[in-house]
Amino acid sequence: MGVERACLAHAHAHAYARAHACAGRGPTVTASTYPIWGWGGPDQEPDAAALEALAPLAQAWLGFGLQAPERPARLRPLPAPRLAAPAPLAAITSAEPLDRARHGLGRAYADLIRGVRGRIDHPPDLVLRPRAEAEVAAVLDWAAQAQVAVVPFGGGTSVVGGVEPAVEDRFVGVAALDLGALAGVAEVDPVARAARVLAGTTGPALEAALGSHGLTFRFYPQSFERSTVGGWLATRAAGHFSTGPTHVDDLVEAVRLVTPAGVWASRRLPASGAGPSPDRLALGSEGTLGVITEAWLRVRPRPTSRSSSVWAFRSFHAGAEAVRAIVQAGLTPATCRLVDATEAALTGTLDSGEAALLLGFETAGGPPEVELAAAATIARDAGGRLVPEQAGVAAADAWRASFRRAPYLREQLVLLGVLVETFETAVTWDHLDGLVDRVTEATRAALAQVCGAGTVTCRLTHAYPDGAAPYFTVLAPARRGSELSQWAEVKAAAAEAVLAAGGTITHHHGVGREHRPWYERQRPGPFGLALTAAKAALDPTGVLNPGVLLPP
Q: Is the same domain home to 409 and 270?
């Protein structure tokens, strides 16, 4: 594969294959800190040979210079824990430095940079792993009495500072709450097609358990392999489905969470008009009102038939018109991803200079070809060009592979001195074109000023009858030692442009600490008062994830 034809995703795979074929596994970049900042297991840690093989391919494709592979630093010594758990909680408590460090970072670009440098700015004093709801309650009782901040960790995949224990000095210490031991599918109702799932259950474990019943939750965020059910609910996550029930909100039947004021358990119902929904307040609360311990989730039969096609459009905006027409016609493709020409080329999806629309339908019964044909007619009428079947299959495969490899490729690019980050929003159709243009222009201008160069790509990840969710990717040369300030400046410019264009500060990544300034400007003032009052009622000492959603 020549450099001139090697897309970034293929370059990643090619470099790894070549490095491993030539040098076996090769010397690892580090054996001590990858569990803190890395996405995969020990066998997926970037090695020096693969990085050196990837560098010239990535540099040629990105169009700017890369740096020599960075060797991650050893973990800097952590401050000693400021407190100890009481005897009844000792069995579920860890103060081990590597454990504390791992629970001091999420998975944003800034987290990755600090992890690679061995720098944990806000390690928790303790990590607690309750095995039952009663132990969660005991942790919150102790924390409220002792003034210990509690930060629910989920799978640790937050990219908005949602799990970093950066809290005020008024607390005597901070504990990371890891529900990994509170996991599993506790009950399945095949009649109503629902399952009671414990909050610490990861995506793969959930699908494995439901698969034995011929069922699926069919919820696949990019963090699927690491994130947890509790984290999905707490952040109102969105899955890989492009249309229909995209957010986890639509798939929740009932929620149970523990608060310092008592257990909050909603009644299991298909729907209810009884006042404001308790589930709606729990969903998206990001660990500030209580700790989600379990939920009844709506499940479905596993799909048996799939059909797909790929369409090329002269411009991103032309493709967006096709997407709008498809969803407004009442069609609900599982995949309806519109990728701009630059991202299509970088991922190996399409190298013709056109935007690519990936369409896919699936069913658990009848054939999906009827709906696909209807969507194809709409795409053609909107000016789309059907990519021939063999090339279309290759394009779809390339897109899926790049989606799965993205977290691993990002690690490698960061070690080669590339600023790699994403942000997303949602807006109504009448403002979509303007938002995409305005945000892209503002981000490019910030990259030129801050980094000297860079690329901004956009894709539509989710589509609704009244709007869509644009998702932006940033790739730029970073200055080692200045990455955090560089990204902060670029991020601020992008966020300002998003709000000015009528979008939301986040579609599915959550608010965390990073987005809170823009979230406070976006939400209605009276709702902010109501949320503050709810926080005071449920968490009167303010120990739950302080600084997230609301000011400390």
A: no
Any domain includes 437:
yes
Cβ atoms 183, 202 nearer than 8 A: yes
Q: Is 67 part of any domain?
A: no
For residues 384-388, average pLDDT: 97
Phi, psi of 381, rounded to the nearest 5 degrees: -65, -25
Pair 168, 211 in one domain:
no
The 3-state secondary structure of 336-354, one letter per residue: EEEECHHHHHHCCCCCCCC
Same domain, 162 and 240: no
Quick check: is 198 in a domain? yes
DSSP 97-124: HHHHHHTT--SSHHHHHHHHTT--SS--
Cα–Cα distance between 116 and 69 in angstroms, integer?
12
d(CA 298, CA 419): 39
Supply the CATH number for residue 102's domain.
3.30.43.10
Query: Which tokens in the block code for residue 403?
Result: 């989606």
Report residue 454 CA to chain centroid gap: 23
Q: How far apart are CA 125 and CA 165, in angstroms?
A: 9
Instruction: For 250-307, write each residue's pLDDT tens digit.
Output: 999 999 999 999 999 999 999 999 999 999 999 999 999 999 999 999 999 999 999 9
The answer as to whether 546 is a domain residue is: no
pLDDT band at 152 (very low <50, low <70, confident <90, very high): very high
Summarize pLDDT for 192-228 with one digit per residue, the tens. 999 999 999 999 999 999 999 999 999 999 999 999 9
The length of the chain in residues reads 552
- Domain containing residue 261: 185-301
Answering whether pTM is above 0.85, one says yes
Rg of the chain taking only CA atoms, in angstroms: 23
Tell me, yes or no, whether 311 and 275 share the same domain: no
Residues 316 and 461 in one domain: yes
* Residues forming a β-bridge with 358: 310, 337
